[in-house]
Amino acid sequence: MTDHRNAWTGAKALLFDLDGVLTPTAVVHEQAWKELFDGYLTDAGHPQGYRENDYFDHIDGKPRFDGVRDFLASRAIALPEGPVNDHPDHETVQGLGNRKNAIFSGIVDSRGVEPYPGSVKFINAAVELGLKVAVVSSSRNAPAVLRAAGLDHHFEVVVDGQVAAAVGLPGKPDPATYVYGARLLGVPVEECVVVEDAVSGVQAGAAADFFAVIGVDRGAGRQTLLEAGATLVVDDLSDLL
User: Fold this and answer.
1) CATH no., domain 5-24+114-240
2) Which of 9, 124, 155, 203 makes a 20 to 30 Å CA pair with 51?
């Protein structure tokens, strides 16, 4: 079996994506997006419905409203932007994004969140070795998901969609949020490892001089993540121990 420990041995910090890396909430996000666009496209009488690969092709890993824009563009649909707090019933970019968030929150509230056991094991091992850790997520729900999963005590630094919007950082695949996370930890990017499951997130890590970019294959595909710039790809973070 290949020893993957050298992919992060020598690093000083780990920057984790959340959904699909630490928690299986990427599946919940995918379900929420499907419910949103199935309903929207049906109501709009659009001839092309939501397809299984739409999530990975247009949405996965991106800030919520970028996901709305990119999906609509794939169907040649242009909607008004609307205000940031637009009502979820409104057919605007912001309205649809807020509707998706309401769907996601409802699913999480009803089911709860169980982190990946292998991810918990890896975090504990990394912290015991003295590595600093942070979460860098496009989701605006990251703090709530971390609390629900019982992982919030590990992460004093969380750069989520709310933080990125407040500071004016572009979302993934731009590396800005990961670079900002490294800065908040006080660790040079060259000593930080990015851990991602989304193509856009791997691209973000590969776009700056990070120590390594570890891809976690939760459905995007091993070769796809490698081509996006991953240093290596594992099926579970316990593979790194």
Assistant:
1) 3.40.50.1000
2) 203
